[in-house]
DNA sequence: GTGGTCTAGACCACA
DNA sequence: GTGGTCTAGACCACA
């Protein structure tokens, strides 16, 4: 029933886990523009986490333009230009792909092989969803 | 002219930077099995870094089976089964690819688009090397 | 009254002494799963030892799956499958027994004699506890 | 064809490996009293090891009374009272057994179980020799 | 308050 | 000369 999930022992800072989770939810359209997010206190209680941790994640999301703080009324999903958010998605993915290709290159594995691996994994995913 | 390079301001701990750099060099065959690595002190001097930091990286590499410590004679690249290290390379890459696909999926971007993006980036890399 | 004891002059590195002591305490059930361990600084103060030394021991214990690091909240005994840890106990003991038998064999002492010696010593221990 | 074998990457100091290997060979009667050991130089060449390392092992063995240095003629197995060397064997084994029992106790495994484990392993060894 | 990282420098075992 | 261990003390991210 919780909105968000974290794994406290994963090594990734909790605020970052929250940040990227909500970031994706917004980019994905899971939260509509203008929609209210659960309050810092609610999330903190649900996840058994320090309120400051939640607050830090919300603060970052505000800074990046994903959320808008309505004074006294909590956080709300920001109005965003659809084109911009598409752009952001691709920026995120491109960064990951570049890292992937760099690593592959340093291990002496060429582009063909990487594309084959990606295709293969993508199909595996597809099947597992059927 | 240094064997290794670090970026002290990247936020990634220096010993981890060294670890993954050397890990890739070994997997890549840049260092042959049995070959001596530069001594802790040499690396420390070159990079203007504390010997313990280098030592920590070397220690991790030994634990993972990449290096072998010869008492009093320094560190040497471990004998490794070629098949095993191929396997490791693919394990590393597959892990990265799975993350990529998960992220993409959560952002509502399908496999086709991802493969297109990867192909595109791979070609960009290729060109920039020519 | 200290939780842990070390002998600084034994030649065995302090971090290793701590590691195997805590390892046994966890395997033994002295610390329950989820229980908090004393903080690095507490232990360091008690034993009059550098915090980094304690930290090194804790780090090893985390790596081996005995402890879990809760960010900003200290170390906690990991959830472990009881069957697995039983297995680990026996692995440790079997390794010691095999060494014992190899040594005995190399000295021309047969299995009967070894079993007799073990039985004898076990009874001595028992008596000294009464 | 080598008299002795070492494993340079095992973590155990080479001089200690040599020491205990020769100790057992003497206790076991593999080397008779008065018999010559190979020279420091020979062993060092065979094992591709620093002569000082061999020398250190021989020195320790002399100190413990296993070898006698004949000036200008090399090392020779010492004349030893049979009773004494029996005693030494048992001292070594008893020490190992005590460690075993201590460990077992700290892991909550009782004497019966340990004796069972030893018996079981001893029989396994016997079978594998047939 | 918690652990993580790093430095500067000392001392040690091993070869 | 090689790596291993430890200290004292600093600074940092995280909660």
Task: Please tell me about this protein's structure.
4 copies of one chain form a homotetramer. Chain A is mostly helical. The first copy, chain A, has 2 domains: 14-77, Winged helix-like DNA-binding domain superfamily/Winged helix DNA-binding domain (Arc Repressor Mutant, subunit A, Orthogonal Bundle); 82-129. In chain A, 61% of the residues lie in helices and 6% in strands. Chain A contains 5 helices and 2 strands. Chain A has helices at residues 14-27, 40-47, 51-63, 82-106, 111-129; strands at residues 67-70, 74-77. The first copy, chain A, has a two-stranded antiparallel sheet with strand order 1-2. In chain A, helix 1 (14-27) crosses helix 3 and helix 2 packs across helix 3 (51-63). The model of chain A has no long low-confidence stretch (mean pLDDT 86). At the A-B interface, helix 1, helix 4 and helix 5 of A face helix 1, helix 4 and helix 5 of B. The structure holds a DNA duplex (15 and 15 nucleotides).
List keywords for this structure.
homotetramer; about 130 residues; mainly alpha; Arc Repressor Mutant, subunit A; 2 strands; elongated; DNA-binding
CATH architecture of the largest domain in chain A: Orthogonal Bundle
Query: How many E strands of chain A?
Result: 2
Q: Structural class given helices, strands, pairing of chain A? A: mainly alpha
Q: Report the β-strand fraction of chain A as a percent range.
A: 5-15%
